[in-house]
Amino acid sequence: MSLNQNPIGVFDSGVGGLTVLKQLIRFLPNENFVYLGDTARVPYGNKSPETIKRYAREATQFLLEKQVKMIVVACNTVSSLAIEQVQETAGNIDVVGMIDFSAVAAYRSSRSKRIGIIGTRATISSKGYDENLQKIAQNNPLEIKAIPCPLFVPLVEEMQIDSEATKLIANQYLAPFKEFQIDTLILGCTHYPALKKVISDILPDVTLIDTGEQSAIQVLRILAEKQLLNSSEIDFSSTPQIEFYLTDFSHSFTQLAELLLGFPIQNPKLIEFSG
Questions:
Q1: Which one of 10, 14, 49, 125 is CB 3.0 to 4.6 Å from 42, fit for a cystine?
Q2: Which conformational region is residue 117 in: left (phi greater than 0), alpha (psi within -120 to 50 degrees), or beta?
Q3: Which residues are catalytic?
Q4: Are residue 113 and residue 167 in the same domain, yes or no?
């Protein structure tokens, strides 16, 4: 099998990366994928940087063993705190994270240059998006408001996507953005696109930046430039070829995966890391 036919590796702490996988399938319908969800250790957002870096190395090594041609870090927390560890472990395999391209998209989208960011505590504390936005803006006017939304991850993991509790919590988290008058909001966690409707109802005139969508566009660009796109004939009547690996069988994973992706998934396999 030529390198072009090798799968793209995708990993996240849980189901959030499925929103990235959905965008990858949308932009790259001819590709095969290996998806790793570290469901036993979700969420990453409240872990120490050292622990997150260790998890990132383990996930990367696992995907390399699956002969992937590219690795997509479908986790903003890892993208913020451990992207260098992923790149070092991956060697000559290209790595695409969630932050750089989404920051560019947000800056270009914003007319007022008042940009909001939501994410896990670890992502917000890392200031990865803030620093990228400031670098892009250089000395031009830019105002940023970043708010951690730690409860969003467990709400999505428990399929409370449109519940009254989720709406109440979202209203509380997002209220400061109304006063700040942002016109663009970066969804700085891959779980958050599952809550787009709830967020848009609260902030109806705000452009939402889906980090998975922006990263999928970059994956397509990189593979095209390196002539690594899978050129085999595509069967649009079949579901995409994806191998799913989990570190724990959460009761909601299969149901939520099918809800987010729009098709039934095939027998996720259980793997185990050191702890």
A1: 14
A2: beta
A3: 75, 189
A4: yes
Residue 158 in any domain: the answer is yes
Structural domain count, the chain: 2
β-pair type (94-96, 33-37): unpaired
Q: Is 245 left (phi over 0), alpha (psi -120 to 50) or beta?
A: beta
Q: Which of 210, 226, 248 is the last residue of a domain?
A: 210
**Alpha-carbon distances, residue 182 vs 49, 78, 178, 235 (angstroms):** 30, 26, 7, 43
Separation between Cα atoms, residue 11 and residue 245, nearest integer Å: 9
Q: How far apart are CA 43 and CA 193, in angstroms?
A: 16
Question: pLDDT tens for residues 3-60?
Answer: 888 999 999 988 889 999 999 999 999 999 999 999 998 888 888 999 999 999 999 9
User: Using one digit for the tens of pLDDT, what is the confidence trace for 118-139?
Assistant: 999 989 999 999 999 999 999 8
Looking at the fold, whether 153 and 176 belong to one and the same domain comes out as yes
Nearby residues of 117 by Cβ (< 8 Å), 6 or more positions away = 124, 129, 130, 144, 145, 146, 147, 185, 186, 188
Residue 186: CATH number of its domain: 3.40.50.1860
Structural domain includes residue 275: no
pTM of the model: 0.91
Position 150: which residue type? P
